[in-house]
Amino acid sequence: xxxxxxxxxxxxxxxxxxxxxxxxxxxxxxxxxxxxxxxxxxxxxxxxxxxxxxxxxxxxxxxxxxxxxxxxxxxxxxxxxxxxxxxxxxxxxxxxxxxxxxxxxxxxxxxxxxxxxxxxxxxxxxxxxxxxxxxxxxxxxxxxxxxxxxxxxxxxxxxxxxxxxxxxxxxxxxxxxxxxxxxxxxxxxxxxxxxxxxxxxxxxxxxxxxxxxxxxxxxxxxxxxxxxxxxxxxxxxxxxxxxxxxxxxxxxxxxxxxxxxxxxxxxxxxxxxxxxxxxxxxxxxxxxxxxxxxxxxxxxxxxxxxxxxxxxxxxxxxxxxxxxxxxxxxxxxxxxxxxxxxxxxxxxxxxxxxxxxxxxxxxxxxxxxxxxxxxxxxxxxxxxxxxxxxxxxxxxxxxxxxx
Length: 403
What we know:
This protein has about 400 residues and is an alpha/beta fold. The protein folds into two domains: about 5-215 and about 340-400, Rossmann fold, CATH 3.40.50.10540; about 240-325, formyl-coa transferase, domain 3 (2-Layer Sandwich). The protein is built from 19 helices and eleven strands. The strands form three sheets. Strands 3-2-1-4-5-6 form a six-stranded parallel beta sheet. Strands 7-8-9 form a three-stranded antiparallel beta sheet, covered by helices on one side. Strands 10-11 form a two-stranded antiparallel sheet. A hairpin with a 3-residue loop joins strand 10 (about 340-345) and strand 11. The longest helix has 24 residues, at about 175-195. The radius of gyration is 25 Å and the shape is elongated. The two termini are about 20 Å apart.
């Protein structure tokens, strides 16, 4: 199917992305752009492909269950960028594209003669999105930089976990995903600039800087007070009450740290006088007495069912909820009403349920058009349809291992 027909919806449907690189930090940015309608052509090494094709939990012998998510809404072609012929073909694709997305170690593109100056001479409107561990400059630029290292360097690892244990990690690849999300933000900012000037530019997204950008007042607090945030488990220091509390059969999260909300919590507990006590009367006071306040609330919730606690919180306007796992998400009416989880057709699995596109746009919503491509599935469509190669040339390039 012609790409102009196949990709009809989404705010970015008139844009083309060439996705190089592998794993998560670059490809998640490609997923975000594809979710909003961009035509994403994923370029993979012949006979090899992205390692994500086999990553993640899966049944023995089955394809990866991670790949259909990270590679959704993408086309796959094979191209060996280590060969001069492959580099020349990429330049032909550059002339017809809006974005080039890569997450190789800095210097790799330059080694292949694919630096931005060269590519911009072919297409001055090109926006080059570069995602790496430490960025394209600085003394660490050429180091190998996985997301886990960026999370540690950016300050996240030190503050995650219980204070009685060594620094922990968030249970997802958050460093890679954050760098990809900031790369997407940068790409769309560069696109707006291009609309005004006609000129592209380089977007340089470093994993450690993306993590650092999320660290709130961590640096400022240390700079002015010498305070170093430590691991605090389920709470944020001096933000109370906001914790996970036991019920007769489980747990419920209650966040009532604003003065007015805390007063409503006290009313729900049948103890309105608590809000008037000096040690709980305002945000600073509750922070100073955080542990005893949490213990007091826990004694109350532990005598009630989860449903009863949630009903009281809802009636009194106190933010509260469950600690969700996949089974909870799949049966929750809020997820269903907003189609937060959708079923996508897959050639092996039949139907795959996965998270939908976020955020939702009212006029040009994104969508999931396909779960994931097979390796080189779109070689014919791109090399013949987009570049106009005859059948003989496509066959010769395949025989030479270029595609």
